[in-house]
Amino acid sequence: MATAHINGTPADFASTVLMPGDPLRAKMIAEKYLTDATLVNNIRGIGGYTGFYKGKRVSVMASGMGMPSMGIYSYELFNFFGVDHIIRVGTAGALDKEIKVRDVVVGMGCSTDSNYAASFALPGTYAPLCSYKMLNACAESAKEMGIAPRVGNLLSTDVFYSGDEVNERWASMGVMAVEMEGAALYMNAARAGKHALVICTVSNHLLTGDEISVQERQNSLDKMITLALETALKLD
Fold first, then answer.
1. 185, exposed or middle or buried, with CB in 10 Å at 0-12, 13-18, 19+?
2. Is there a contact between 61 and 17 (Cβ–Cβ < 8 Å)?
3. CATH of span 10-233
4. pTM surpassing 0.90?
5. Any idea of the CA torsion for 31, 220, 151, 141, to the nearest 10 degrees?
6. What is the phi-psi region of residue 222: left when phi exceeds 0, alpha when psi lies from -120 to 50, beta otherwise?
7. Is there a contact between 175 and 157 (Cβ–Cβ < 8 Å)?
8. Residue 130 burial (10 A CB sphere; 0-12, 13-18, 19+)
9. Distance between CA 132 and CA 119 in Å, rounded?
10. How does pLDDT run across 37-86, given as a tens digit for each residue?
11. Which of 52, 81, 98, 227 measures 20 to 30 Å from 207, CA to CA?
12. Residues 205/34, Cβ–Cβ less than 8 Å
């Protein structure tokens, strides 16, 4: 069943989808890491591909930028295309002084300044959390790979250009890093009874000013992508 945003049928997508924000990064992942990858969606330039990683069928599709865009694509994949697991693979800005550029961070939870949760008409404040099943699979995969990602609370923000004072207040509450899509993904997964996990590479540090290049953002990030794919191998 095609939608206004995704072409194809549920058979075109694997049970697990890796979801970067950037369509060019989705293309890179499909070409570099998957075998027999086939383009299954390209509406609005949002490339979706399905192929195989170490013999397991896996899909990768871009989410676009921000929670409204992630909200659309993850909702449709979960509810219309039979997807059970979505792993966001993206970049984040660090807030913790102990975290360095190129480190991998995993969102156990995603705080947010967004009003996205209002769409669910809940009588209180919702705490968007990852799937423990996926977090456990990720932790096992990281141990096997010999890496130690930081696991904790991320901030999913609607505001890219926020002031230092705002960042410092979030940091004072133990928030590790800032990104822009995770909370919407976790809320959609919860409502659909599905599973989601956010894995990010630190592309810049909001306290020190360190950053990686635009080209490196698009074309590298190997450790994060491999961790996500190894995690996918452990998911039913």
1. buried
2. yes
3. 3.40.50.1580
4. yes
5. 50
6. alpha
7. no
8. buried
9. 24
10. 999 999 999 999 999 999 999 999 999 999 999 999 999 999 999 999 99
11. 227
12. no
